[in-house]
Amino acid sequence: MGLVQTRNIVKDFPAGETNVRVLHDVTVDVNAGELTMLVGPSGCGKTTLLSIMTGILTPSSGEVIIDGTNLTALRDREKVLFRRERLGFVFQQFNLLPALTAAENAAVPLIAAGVPFEDAVARAEAMLRDVGMGPHTAKKPNQLSGGQQQRVAFARALVHRPRVLVCDEPTSALDATSGQQVMEILRAVALQPDCAVIVVTHDNRIYHFADRMIHMADGRIERTEARGEIHDA
User: Fold this and answer.
1) Where is average pLDDT lowest: 64-68, 91-95, 135-139?
2) C or N: which end of the chain has fewer Cβ atoms within 10 Å?
3) What is the pTM assigned to this prediction?
C-alpha cells in the first residue's frame, strides 16, 4: 500500500450548462522511499490530480488516503491542519517574501504552526545548511540566484519534516546545472523510508531521478514505468 493513495478519482468542472470531466477514474499509489513523477502534455490533468492528492481540490467522486488518513473525508479546516503537519510544497514560482531573509522565509511554516520565532529561525538555518545554503541564511531573495532561491523554497517545504513533499515544475525556471542540483536534493529526501516525493514536470532532463513515472493523457493514467524503464530525452 502506498503512503499516498488515490482511488477512482473523478473530477468534473462546470462549463456553462454542462460539466467537463478532467479526471477519469484515476487510481494511483505513491510509495514511501520513492520519487514519483507525474508527466504528460499540458492539460492532461496532472496539476488537477496533484491538487486533489493534497486536498486543495475536492474530487467529484473517489477518495484520497495519505498515511492512513482519508483526506476526502476531512472538513476544510482539518485539511488545512493536515497539510500543515504532513505535507510540504514546492512551486514553480519560488514565492519567497522579499523583505525576509532566507532563514526567515524558510521558517514561515514553523512560525505559522506556533513555534517561537527564534526557535523557528534556528531550525530553518539548520535546514538551509542541509540543502547547501549555509553561507546565505542572512541574505534576502534579491541577493540570491534562481537556484539558490529554489533551495530556500526546498528548505521552507522541508523544515517541518513532512511525510509527503509535493513539487510542481520545480526545475522549469532553472538552468540545467541548477536543475540537476535541486533534483539531487529531492532524490535525497525521497530515499528516506518514511517519506514520499511527488514531482509534476515537463522537464525530460530530470526523468532519470524518478523511481516511478506515471504518464497521463486526457485525464487518465496512460501507463506507469518503474526505475530502469525510464530514460531522459
Assistant:
1) 91-95
2) C
3) 0.89
Q: Is the CB of residue 152 less than 8 Å from the CB of residue 105?
A: yes
Backbone CA torsion sign across 9, 44, 231, 152 = negative
Among residues 103, 66, 60, the alpha carbon closest in space to that of 85 is found at: 66
CB 159 within 8 Å of CB 102: no
Q: Residue 14, exposed/middle/buried by CB under 10 A (0-12, 13-18, 19+)?
A: exposed
The secondary structure element, H or E, covering residue 112 is: helix 102-112
What's the confidence (pLDDT) of residue 229? 75
Read off the pLDDT of residues 70-108 as tens digits, 9 standing for 90 and up: 999 999 999 999 998 899 998 878 889 999 999 999 999
Residue ranges making up the domain that contains 138: 4-226
Contact of 22 with 218, CB cutoff 8 Å: no
- Residue positions counted in the chain: 233
pLDDT band at 204 (very low <50, low <70, confident <90, very high): confident
Give the three cell numbers for residue 27.
487510481
Return the SS3 of 107: helix
Q: Identify whether 233 is part of a domain.
A: no
Cell of 129: 545548511
**Nearest alpha-carbon partner for 119 in 129, 104, 133:** 104
CATH number of the domain where residue 136 is located: 3.40.50.300
* Arithmetic mean of pLDDT, 43-71: 94
Please tell me the distance from the alpha carbon of residue 117 to that of residue 64, in angstroms, as a whole number.
34
